[in-house]
């Protein structure tokens, strides 16, 4: 039966694909990344999430490392429901005993023991010969196997180990009882082809290879961790070791969410299943990020905040027509609420119109065109254009559509050496009038200039400024209330320049007064 994977990432239910086990080491290798230490409670919370989302093996810690690690591994083992719980141990009797003690409470306990196999490590770190290490492997794997049925053995620095010796070490580990053989790219050195070939060769050359499951564990020093993990699967690995958000020693490990979604989305060329409920990925990523105070980079695949955000007009237009134009999986398939079309300088009319509709505005073609021009001008000056910015400029736009007095330009000289001076150019019903006026402060100068061009007796009841959006380039929204002859009107103006928004707000209020038929000198001036 052919199993299909749809582009939105959902697998057909009856799968006949090979199963790849997901071994999560967020709590062990992940915690090894500088600054990522997690508390006991945070580890329990993460382990519970991993168990619920279908992680096959949770490496809960390195029990000999500290009393805290031992306690965390023991408690996670006690609370585990479906997942196998692994504890890491060096090829040292005391480490293995401690790991065995910590995981024994689990329904499915595993001891994961490791030793170096590469010449560099043997010479400089272990200071042992190859034969001595072979003897250590046989002894320590057997010790672990006496404690638990499920023993994983890792050849630390496998990718810098001569193939012959790697095969001999693997054979010895399986003979001593290892049920999983992990061949890590400890220093992130391998390329995908090399890593795939290494698995294929070891599995072919080691006589008892079929007695163990082979596992990949990749570091990201060259940014190849996920690619190498997928290559390992093609070489015969059926367990992938990874971490949420790809955290881990140095540049980190293969990211669980990327491995899982690569297998899900590209099932056509990688026909393998995992047991992961991918809709929990976003939540799990956030939990880990919060626990270790490690922000997720914006453009991180799958769980970065831009992973389902589109800013450019052409992409947004495509997305509005059909999501498959620019998304290879749905946000829902990884637990992200929705795609976002971010309004910015690269956005086009299609997205702008859709955004306005979503915000409840129904503008005619001319108004829309006008608002779009102003939006582009704003987006050129401002890094983030929020909904509130758009709201402010559209309100401003609607209000000014029938204005009799319009702002043409404004220049203000302000600073410590007063008096402040405003040079204002207004379009008064088609007539351009310019005045340069002083004031007690820049706002006073601006309002005096308006009064000079459009004489009136309305009094200023309220002047209020607030930032509509965040940052030093935030839109300033100014509210002005004018009263005259019992009429009270409010005008709002928005602009990144507070002085310009003040002038706009005043003029909106003044135009409203005129629209109400209030007799101002302005009408006389304009006539
Ligand atoms: C590739 C990896 O991610 S491996 C896991 C790395 N993770 C960690 O190291 C985190 C936890 N580690 C620790 O808390 C400490 O390093 C401990 C408790 C394990 C050991 O602490 P110490 O006894 O003080 O040793 P220290 O860390 O200084 O040195 C490591 C020792 O282990 C030896 N060693 C390293 N790996 C192995 C191994 N797989 N099997 C046996 N011995 C090993 C080293 O040769 C060195 O031995 P030496 O002191 O005789 O030279
Ligand atoms: C302990 C082993 C699996 C490891 O973390 C590595 O080699 O990177």
Automatic annotation (TrEMBL):
EC number: 2.3.3.13
Involved pathway(s): Amino-acid biosynthesis; L-leucine biosynthesis; L-leucine from 3-methyl-2-oxobutanoate: step 1/4
Reactions the enzyme catalyzes: 3-methyl-2-oxobutanoate + acetyl-CoA + H2O = (2S)-2-isopropylmalate + CoA + H(+)
PROSITE patterns from the UniProt entry: AIPM_HOMOCIT_SYNTH_1, AIPM_HOMOCIT_SYNTH_2, PYR_CT
Region (Regulatory domain): 406-527
One Pfam family hit: LeuA_dimer
Domain of life where this protein originates: Bacteria
SMART domains xref list: LeuA_dimer
Gene Ontology biological process terms in this record: L-leucine biosynthetic process
Keywords for this protein: Acyltransferase, Amino-acid biosynthesis, Branched-chain amino acid biosynthesis, Cytoplasm, Leucine biosynthesis, Manganese, Metal-binding, Transferase
Cofactor(s) the protein needs: Mn(2+)
Binding positions (Mn(2+)): 29, 217, 219, 253
Cross-referenced NCBIfam families: leuA_bact, PRK00915.1-3, PRK00915.1-4
Biological function: Catalyzes the condensation of the acetyl group of acetyl-CoA with 3-methyl-2-oxobutanoate (2-ketoisovalerate) to form 3-carboxy-3-hydroxy-4-methylpentanoate (2-isopropylmalate).
Protein's name in the database: 2-isopropylmalate synthase
Source organism per UniProt: Bosea vaviloviae
Annotated gene: leuA
